[in-house]
Amino acid sequence: MGTPGTSTTMHIGAVAERTGLSLRTLRHWDEVGLVRPSGRTDGGFRLYTDSDVDRILLVRRMKPLGFSLDEMGDLLDVVHRLAAGEATDPDGTDLRARLDEFTTTARARRADLARKLDMADELITLLGAI
Hints:
Mean pLDDT: 92
Radius of gyration: 19 Å
Number of strands: 3
Strand order of the largest sheet: 1-3-2
Pfam families: MerR_1
Keywords: DNA-binding
Protein name: MerR family transcriptional regulator
Shape: flat
Distance between the termini: 63 Å
Domain HTH merR-type: 9-78
Strand content: 5-15%
Low-confidence stretches: 1-5
Order of helices and strands: EHHEEHHH
């Protein structure tokens, strides 16, 4: 397919370095359709745009909160459609309401992680006192 448009593109190695993710993870996300590169070289190498990297970084931020690949894909779809100016799903569901649900879930999962960190800190303190 070649380089899309005139935007700057980067190969997978540069994207891995920029995002802190492994080549394997990026390839997997492409294979399952989560974050596909915008183009490929004539030789078949993946070419990512800054917009692709932004999507990758959004997914990377979802990982520690335990979102599934399907949930990540749904959120990416909502964000993309809101950015395109859409307001509802084809079934009439409000996209902003769906985004709010993701935000609520992310807050709850963050709070759970914070509780776990507090318990880990307590354990470390207890072990240090032995």
